[in-house]
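All the exercises in this workshop are built on plain-text protein records. An example says more than a description, so a record of this kind follows:
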Amino acid sequence: MKNALQLSLVLGGLFSADSAEPRKVKRRFTAEPEWKKEATEKIDRDQKLLPPKFVADKYGVKEGDELNHTVALKIDEEARGLGEKPPNFFKVKDDEVLLLPEVFSQLDPDKVKRGFALPGDAKDEQELRNSRWWGRIYLDGWPQTVQYFRAHFGEPPPEGVRRVVLADPPDACGPLEGQDYSGAIVFAKRGTCTFSSKARAAAKAGADALVLVNNEEGNDHLAGPDAHDVGVSVSMVAKADGDLVLKVLEERLQRTKEMAVAATLERAGERASERAGEKGAAALGVLTGALVPIHCAEKSDERGDLTAELGSDLCAPCTAAERQAGREPLEGGWLTLSSDPPEVLQASADLQKAEFMIATFGVAVDPKVAVEVAVADKQEGCAPLEGGGGLTFEEFNERHLNETSEGVEKRELVGSRYEGKAVLLKRGGCSFIDKAKAAQATGAAMLIVANSHLGLSRFGVEPRWKGLGINIPCVMVTEAGGAALLEVALAAAASQGGASAAYVTATLSKGVSGAAWDEVELFRTGAAFGNKGPKAPSKNPAVAKAAAALLAKHREAHAGWPERLAALQEGFDALGLGDAKAAGKSEL
């Protein structure tokens, strides 16, 4: 019976939209259900009574009535026996359901199978976009896109990049308060009240989209029979992905509230703590993103004029603008080094900004907040970090993420010197995911992996689900960036009896991209110069001059990025052609 209540039908029927307590109920069903009486009369199968008339005539219940779920199942079965569409039911208690008005789905199966819109046909692009059943949420600085399923009710997803905020209350089962929701994408938890109640709360607050995070495994197209007229887009994401987004949004909302408290104390003439000030500054790190509907062609030859653009992809965003935006993700930036006192940094590191690339797992880097750097004794992080609190990754998640795993004891994190800090580890010795687990188990706020050379790329894990347990930002810096961080952190640890500290503050920028570093890597390895491996240096002046000219051209393209310039120079030096300036002046 319970499984039957969890069915969700596109055009009505018995379903469990959510576990909820209804806010308003017209009246409770108390009459003796018809099916319990001795049924001697023959069912007239020519009688075409559609719900709710079918239900009202035979069972004496109306829309908004609560009834026992066994009765609801009987109504459902009898309706199907008569060849009629069953009414919509919504589970409100373990043994009771609510009869809701019928509404047709906004998702039209007849519009699913079609080709991509022709380039330049804005009207057809819009029609294609508005009729898609699913898509991806592109969150700026997020490791990967998050798949969403559109609800059977509500508007199509809004276009363009918008603020992404957490509902307050988090389940959106009341008026949304505490921040500006106008034009935003609002994330909320599933549960407590109906989907339509949440959607109406988001719409009333001025939001353009509501994204619900599932509270069980899987995903679905949400039903809202009593919310067909709600003026907001509604979607749902899977629990694993959604929980990571909720964690980040909860932390940022909490810092926003702490900033407000700190400002109030200062206005009252009291001195707010330095820590409150730091957290308040972090509230400026607003998460942004876009809901992008995705269309899939059944065959590659159905992509028409977009075949060259899409390459081997059968699925892509519906509009040219959204496809272009997807090719330019926010996947990197730089870490600004600082120290307390400032003299520690000034006396140690030459490089005070280190480029980074975001891993393909974890969560977004939080800009605007200074995070203290901690160097692990075992710098590769391939074993539990000494002084890290003594918990395994599973034990930490059990206690601090409210996860439940069989055979895992709930233990407290005690005395971790990495808690709330950015842990610096070297590349190598074990997988990136193992390093991330070792860092997270200590209560670290961030993982920084120093590369073993001057290159930079995004690291990850396959299959993707293995990274969904990591809920801290994970980034890679170059060998030079790692050396600068290590130098400042060690200098701070040795200064003033360990009372000093080194910090990093992240800045996200599309200027730091995989494409830029892929180009630099061709020069660092010598491939861009035509070098296919170790060999004797060429003594041909023309070769030297061509290589020097190529180096000069790309040094100009990457001017202002010292780590890239060093990598370019490393590749040229490996050719053994001598000084680049001298080679460039060689006569043919």
Observations:
- The chain has a mean pLDDT of 80.
- The radius of gyration is 30 Å.
